Amino acid sequence: MRILLLTHAFNSLTQRLGAELQRLGHEISIEFDIADSVAEEAVALFRPDLIVAPYLRRAIPESIWKHHVCLVVHPGIVGDRGPSALDWAIQSGEAEWGVTVLQAEAEMDAGPVWASATFPLREAKKASIYRHEVMQAATQAVRQAVERFAAGGYTPAPLSACKEARGSVRPLMHQADRAIDWQRDETATVLRKINAADGFPGVADSLFGTACHIFDASPEAALLGAPDARPGDLLARRQTAVLRKTSDGAVWIGHVKRTGDFKLPTTLAFAGESAALPEIALEGWWRAEGQTWQDIAYEESEGVGFLHFEFYNGAMSTTQCRRLRAALAWAKTRPARVLVLLGGTDFWSNGIHLNVIEAASLGDGSPADESWNNINAMNDLALELIETDGRITVATLAGNAGAGGCFLARAADLVWARDGVMLNPHYKNMGNLFGSEYWTYLLPRRVGDEAARAIMRNRQPLTAQGAVESRFIDACLAGDQDAFRIDVARRAAEIAAAPDLVDRLEAKRACRAQDEAKKPLAAYRDEELNHMRRNFYGFDPSYHVARHHFVRKSLASWTPRHLARHRDLGWKVPE
Ligand code: COA
Questions:
Q1: Above 70 in pLDDT, residue 569?
Q2: By alpha-carbon position, which residue is closest to atom 16 of ligand 1?
Q3: What is the pLDDT of residue 119?
Q4: In terms of CATH, what superfamily is 182-275?
Q5: Is the distance from the beta carbon of residue 424 to the nearest atom of ligand 1 less than 6 Å?
Q6: Closest Cα to atom 21 of ligand 1
Q7: What are the strands, taking DSSP E only, across 62-95?
Q8: CATH architecture under which domain 2-172 falls
């Protein structure tokens, strides 16, 4: 079938559904829901058999749903309606939640139900639930709905006739519903409120007497800070986060958005104020005892070292890259012969930290200089990984990876991804950025010159399975988070215990030496950085403009041509 994806943005759910449907043999094109007339034009050009709307912020126009079946993905259980579905579910501590695929009609989320799926609701950020449980349930439900539509003869049940309908109509969640009462709210309540609003819109609050939205909260078990501190007081700082007292404990707040600005690490957005708080640093890199917030943590088991790096949104600033490199260099002094780089739960890495770079423009700093520092710190980290000659290194992607983050992963000997993860191993979407992280060395040697050029040019997301097929990664493991972790640990321990480990390390050293003799890594880096210097400091401001819009979340005013295939010159509806 020809399926048009009508969506607010090409977010990870849209990417996943597009890839899955394409895999099933359907022809996919994408249009951003910018205006009724644009959507109507896309329908006229593409003449779809079916329209799927993975992520919409407004209703589909009647001119479209009257004449075409439009399947809308709603992130709520059957019967749930309204624009804050996940927010209410998380904030009210629902045990189970779900996704419903409805047919668009005049009333929002009220059409007949084509398919649905449920899942146990984890205590986690809304964006994390969206990227894991919602993504999985939506993929399952959309596949079922599309199969039912394709087979013909299926009549979707009206909402009123659905036996499983137990949801209700709930309004937009307002900031008044989210407000934290620091005097009364316990840590668990504060976490639920911030999680329900994370990544968007955050909880309106204030820090250091300044209004801001807060994000990225983690609990602290130890009693830290002044003994006479009162609930609401700020107690301490650590890396990007500050610690704030609740009525029965404390929470770390990692990110904030000051009014009129964009999301930033708290200790950067309030740099001067945070610096005055006592710093409670963690000693070394070992996983800390007890519940606390730790962005880089190392563990060991069965001859394998595991390095976690839980950076919010997978964005890696200059400081974070340098710290991670120091942790990696230290891990290489441990006896473990296999080193697993686990990244974070939601993202492995999305490359250089565009928000921190943009923040340089708020003061008298230079975003070009900060971009330069960041890419060099990222390259130093990638080099540390490539030059790990006494260990087998494995990058294990439990979460998505994008741009430089994909090539940082590829700098490891092996890359394994969880089924369901999306990879975007290309840079051009960010204002035609050339990219670095030694990709010109790492990519062609894996996939060949022609395929490397195609990956960079086509700018398409890859599913974990697609990435194995294109040889970009080595294995696609279980989709379930726990099963993935267990499988990673088992496979890594097998490599560590295998009798051929010494030979394998010897072969790795020989291969690296051969490559170095042919063309030194320094030469790849110089060539890439020559392009990047032009991106950052040259006449063409495309990268700075693209970053500005990305960070400030400017609304798209057209669908990129590589996604809207129906707008290709010469595209014709097949007879
Ligand atoms: N720097 C700062 N923030 C980043 C980031 C980066 N490199 N990459 C992603 N983010 C943020 C997004 O702004 C968004 O923020 P939010 O919490 O306010 O919503 C969040 O991470 C999730 O990103 P989103 O785009 O919604 O996730 P996705 O899974 O749908 O898409 C990507 C993933 C990688 C395709 C997309 O985030 C992207 O293009 N990122 C930029 C990659 C890049 O160009 N890096 C620089 C070159 S190395």
A1: no
A2: 199
A3: 98
A4: Formyl transferase, C-terminal domain (3.10.25.10)
A5: yes
A6: 313
A7: 70-74
A8: 3-Layer(aba) Sandwich (3.40)
